[in-house]
Amino acid sequence: MPDDFPEREKLYKQDEWINDGDAVVISPTGAVAAGPFKRQKAILYAEIDPEAARRARRSLDVCGHYSRPDIFSFAVDRRQLPPIVFED
């Protein structure tokens, strides 16, 4: 929020962070490749290895636990539903 925003000081303290950030880059293997940046104004850079992404895609277990109906199920409710439901 810009410093010249009208009555900004009533909404936020000068040093207050609305969102702490926690920017991070995760590798295809799930490891942290760069970051996290917490409460910092910065640009996060990471080098990407396209081959590592290809290897990670090959490890997807499409015949294993995804094909076991006792562990994993997928259902789509095709009924038209109201966008808002009020409950007491």
Task: Describe what this molecule looks like in 3D.
The protein has 88 residues and is an alpha+beta fold. The chain is 15% helix and 15% strand. The protein has 2 helices and 2 strands. A two-stranded antiparallel sheet has the order 1-2. The radius of gyration is 22 Å and the shape is flat. It starts with 7 loop residues before the first helix and ends in a 30-residue tail after the last helix. The mean pLDDT is 82.
Number of helices: 2
Order of strands across the widest beta sheet? 1-2
Whole-number tally of structural domains: 1
Low-confidence stretches: none
Average pLDDT, to the nearest integer?
82
Computed over alpha carbons, the radius of gyration is 22 Å
**Secondary-structure-derived class:** alpha+beta
* Number of strand elements: 2
Level of helix content?
10-25%
Largest sheet: 2 strands, antiparallel
> What is the string of helix and strand elements?
HEEH
Task: Give the percentage of residues in beta strands.
Answer: 5-15%
- Report the end-to-end length measured between terminal Cα atoms: 37 Å
Silhouette: flat
Key terms for this structure?
alpha+beta, single chain, two-stranded antiparallel sheet
Secondary structure: elements and pairs:
Blueprint: H1 8-11, E1 21-26, E2 32-38, H2 50-58
Antiparallel strand pairs: 1-2
Describe this structure in a few short sentences:
The chain has 88 residues and is of the alpha+beta class. The protein is 15% helix and 15% strand.
